[in-house]
Specification:
This protein has one domain (4-196). It is 19% helix and 36% strand. It has 3 helices and 10 strands; from the N terminus they run H-E-E-H-E-E-E-E-H-E-E-E-E. Strands 1, 2, 3, 4, 5, 6, 7, 8, 9 and 10 form a 10-stranded antiparallel sheet that branches. Strand 8 (161-173) and strand 9 (179-183) form a beta hairpin. The longest helix is centred in the middle third of the chain and has 24 residues, at 68-91.
Amino acid sequence: MRFNHLRVITVLLVLAGCLPFNAFAQNGDSKPLSDLPRQFAATAVGQGGVTAGKSFGANVYITGWTTNQQVKDYISTLKEKGPDGLVRAMEKTDDVGRLSPTGFVGSGFRFARYRPTANGGLHIVMVTNRPMSFGEVYRGNRSTDYQFGIVVLNVDKDGKGTGTLAPVCKIKFNKKNELEIENFGQKPFRLVNVYLQK
């Protein structure tokens, strides 16, 4: 099942210059939303399958923005070496943020980009090479082909908004040289009650 809602990553990846580091969207603490570090709180709500109707709290930490050059390098790696190559490239970089469900350490992110929105807010996309358990790899589950996790946040000038969490995704270029984001199994989680903590 292709996760069309996340095709916005195509724009963020291909248009490497879309991240203006001098974004001036202001929020309640009088700092640009793009200033780091930043921490957002949210509630994740399941939309289908075994997670339908279930929810949990989560925090999204952003400590760095992926540079234009890094984006270009990631694109080249994905085109030339495929998803496995992109995973290896991400493993060589430092975390630029973290998604932590309430009560858990969570997982670090290796990619974080933003673009200003018309309402003075930000559209933020974060991607990581997701951790896999030994059992998952040993059994060779089909899920091992879905090596990435993706979080999208859409927040207004005060840092409030919504988002999406797709914890198990595949990222690849198709035969038309278009970037595809495919979600594994169930629908992604909706992120509601997103707000800026600090």
